[in-house]
Amino acid sequence: MAKNEVSITVIRRLPIYYRYLGELLDKGVNRISSQELSNLTGYTASQIRQDLNNFGGFGQQGYGYNVEELYNELGKILGLDREYNVVITGAGNLGHAIYYYRGFKRAGFNIIGVFDINPDNTRHAKRNMDVRPLDELEDFIKENKVEIGIITTSKEIAQEVADIYVRAGVKAIWNFATIDLIVPEDVTLESVRLSESLFTLSYFLKRNEGLKKEAEEKKN
Amino acid sequence: MAKNEVSITVIRRLPIYYRYLGELLDKGVNRISSQELSNLTGYTASQIRQDLNNFGGFGQQGYGYNVEELYNELGKILGLDREYNVVITGAGNLGHAIYYYRGFKRAGFNIIGVFDINPDNTRHAKRNMDVRPLDELEDFIKENKVEIGIITTSKEIAQEVADIYVRAGVKAIWNFATIDLIVPEDVTLESVRLSESLFTLSYFLKRNEGLKKEAEEKKN
């Protein structure tokens, strides 16, 4: 029987706590209260304690949390206590940016292959990325026990790439293509929606402009 | 007095509805019920109706929603009914990827300048991006009425760039640097946290592996 499901909203806060705890660790801070974490993160102290209680009794009343211990425990919960073999398909600008992003390797995500429908595109050569053709993808995944597949292709071929990933045994897909992918239930799918972030920005930009105008009209 | 605040969780669903409605429009679908939208988006019909009711009475009982009308109304609410002048600072891989992403221009976000602390880096020349030095940033923003500033620099200089943006009059900042920025209350700040998305993926990958093992052990 599956354990009690922790809600997705709680789960999405864990990497945020993890990031702040990492920064505290870098600064040599040993101990932190839920109130101090609240001041840093913007979540209430009560919310933070509740969230963490889903996973164990990490804190001590009157003491707070041991930063290193909590950081390591959250790391385990987030699956960051091991390394993963990762491939990228889609060697364009975004795939290139992900490939060279150093933070992922530091966190244990090793991008060991980059694939593209057009591997001989000379732009790839200039970028010093060794790009392989799509027809080598399935065997490469199997031979290298690749568990995570990243998709940075156009939306037209994203589902085809996801299908290869699934067939080859990839366990999780990180999708940047602007399309909903269909994958089996036991394959983890996480999509990054940059447009949604930008449109949230424009929502607030417009709203703040509106509020400013209202405030100015009131003065007059 | 500020209007009733709509919660951020509702706001973040609006671009999702907008995206699906755009796809329906492309397919020539004229009309959709909240239940059909629910099947597409995964949110309950009741949630969708509630969300949209915050902004007006768009639907009609028994009819549902007119796709084009709802799409346009959401577009207005999201501030997508106009164009914006945008700059990018940080001409590395990620800045490059954002610069060439066609979806943003189509949505009205015109990237009219790219800046970098090292504009003569030869990698920029190969990418066909005209990169300007940081000391031209403030004047450029003022002269071109730039409202949105994107930050794709390393975290070390991100706050300095944000300060220039604010001083020059930028109204919203889209931040990709892995650091919390400090900006005045009237400047919209939206941060993209790729690591948080990836660590959510690894959380579920690990959890699904655990569930699979449990299921297999039960069979034995």
What's the layout of helices and strands?
2 copies of one chain form a homodimer.
Chain A: H1 8-26, E1 31-32, H2 34-41, H3 45-53, E2 65-66, H4 67-77, E3 84-89, H5 93-99, H6 102-106, E4 109-116, H7 122-126, E5 131-133, H8 137-143, E6 148-151, H9 155-168, E7 172-175, E8 188-191, H10 194-219
Parallel strand pairs in A: 3-4, 3-6, 4-5, 6-7, 7-8
Antiparallel strand pairs in A: 1-2
Helix pairs in contact in A: 1-4, 2-3, 8-9
Describe what you observe in this structure.
The structure is a homodimer of 220-residue chains. By secondary structure, chain A is of the alpha/beta class. Chain A has two domains: 8-77, Winged helix-like DNA-binding domain superfamily/Winged helix DNA-binding domain (Arc Repressor Mutant, subunit A), CATH 1.10.10; 84-195, NAD(P)-binding Rossmann-like Domain (Rossmann fold), CATH 3.40.50. Chain A is built from ten helices and eight strands. Chain A has helices spanning 8-26, 34-41, 45-53, 67-77, 93-99, 102-106, 122-126, 137-143, 155-168, 194-219, and strands at residues 31-32, 65-66, 84-89, 109-116, 131-133, 148-151, 172-175, 188-191. In chain A, the strands form two sheets. In chain A, strands 5-4-3-6-7-8 form a six-stranded parallel sheet, with helices on both faces. In chain A, strands 1-2 form a two-stranded antiparallel ribbon. The termini of chain A are far apart. The relative contact order of chain A is 0.08. The model of chain A has no long low-confidence stretch (mean pLDDT 92). The interface between A and B is large, with 56 and 56 residues.
